[in-house]
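To illustrate the input format used throughout this study, we show a single complete record. The first block contains the structure-token representation of the backbone; no residue identities are included at this stage. The design step must infer an amino acid for every position from geometry alone.
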């Protein structure tokens, strides 16, 4: 999957002469009243009101741009797909350049319409980081399913199954599988079960290698595993995929749950895993800042470090609003990583004015 910072970095360098209108629309499929249309109109009206004292060329161009935006959504059937849309429109009297992205999540409240010399990229990064896809692995001792989670929806990718009768295992829904190694038959009941357990453990460990390869093929950099404790341990022992993080989703037997019924189990675990990662990151960054080493806290110190190109990882409270934009742009220019956190996870950043960073040196 494309790095969410790449498209934001490309967008950040765009600077039309009269500015850019940034539009973030959220669409609730259950809302037949079109509240998002009202938000768009109100946002554009506010932009025009604030531009009353601007020079004539800018006022005319902004009115024309607002009209083009409204016209784009005049068709009652045209709605942001499927939960939202982010758009960046050049301010111009005649048709200017436009860039649009569908989003699988609704944007944060307050991001609807913004006018600036450049595109507002911080909300786009927030959206892209929150909607990043991941792999989902469902485990049992005799069956493994690999799914993709993206945009709040699950889709099946691969499935493998152990054949009990021959103590072999085979791959389902795939063009090819590993060369089977036939187990040795046993006439004794205890010996058979001992061999069966050995093959179950081998099956999980070898499937871990196949899952890692499939995750690479599908450009997924992390996965959540669901299964009983011993199944997760056996699977983890065989998972060696550089650049891919395997996390525990839940210790639950979901192997036979239909895909359409998995959403509640998987989405909750995915959100908690993301919060856990964010909490650990915030703690690590603030600890580095407190230690007086490779860390900075507070908007001024972080801003200075960004200007010097010393930031490796920027962490921001998504609620700080406008100040985030300059800090994010500084991070993009210095090829630093960016994380926007919110809610309880962001509370420790209050003492740092909502901004902290890990430094390269």
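Output of the design step:
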């Amino acid at each position: 999957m494309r790095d969410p910072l790449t498209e934001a970095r490309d967008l950040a360098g765009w600077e039309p002469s009269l500015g850019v209108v940034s539009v973030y629309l959220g669409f609730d499929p259950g809302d037949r009243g079109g509240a998002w249309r009202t938000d768009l109109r109100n946002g554009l009206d506010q932009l025009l009101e604030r531009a009353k004292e601007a020079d004539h060329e800018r006022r005319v161009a902004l009115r024309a741009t607002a009209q083009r935006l409204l016209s784009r959504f005049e068709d009652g059937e045209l709605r942001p797909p499927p939960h939202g849309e982010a758009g960046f429109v050049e301010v111009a009297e005649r048709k200017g350049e436009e860039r649009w992205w569908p989003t699988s999540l609704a944007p944060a409240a307050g991001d609807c319409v913004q006018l600036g010399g450049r595109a507002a990229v911080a909300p786009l990064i927030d959206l892209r980081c929150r909607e990043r896809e991941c792999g989902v692995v469902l485990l049992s001792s005799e069956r493994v399913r690999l799914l993709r989670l993206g945009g709040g929806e699950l889709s099946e990718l691969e499935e493998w199954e152990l054949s009990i009768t021959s103590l072999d295992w085979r791959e389902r829904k795939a063009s090819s599988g590993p060369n089977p190694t036939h187990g040795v038959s046993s006439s004794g009941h205890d010996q058979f079960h001992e061999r069966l357990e050995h093959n179950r453990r081998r099956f999980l460990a070898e499937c871990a290698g196949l899952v890692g390869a499939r995750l690479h093929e599908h450009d997924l950099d992390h996965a959540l595993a669901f299964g009983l404790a011993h199944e997760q341990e056996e699977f983890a022992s065989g998972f060696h995929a550089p650049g891919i993080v395997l996390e525990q989703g839940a210790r639950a037997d979901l192997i036979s749950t239909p895909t359409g019924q998995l959403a509640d189990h998987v989405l909750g675990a995915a959100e908690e895993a993301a919060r856990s990662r964010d909490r650990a990151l915030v703690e690590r960054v603030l600890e580095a800042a407190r230690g007086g080493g490779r860390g900075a806290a507070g908007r001024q110190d972080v801003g200075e470090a960004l200007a010097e190109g010393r930031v490796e990882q920027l962490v921001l409270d998504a609620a700080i609003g406008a100040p985030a934009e300059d800090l994010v742009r500084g991070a993009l220019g210095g090829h630093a990583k960016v994380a926007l956190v919110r809610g309880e996870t962001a509370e420790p950043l209050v003492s740092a004015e909502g901004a902290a960073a890990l430094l390269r040196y």
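Structural context for interpreting the output: The CA atoms of residues 41 and 151 lie 27 Å apart. Confidence is low (pLDDT under 50) at residues 173-186.
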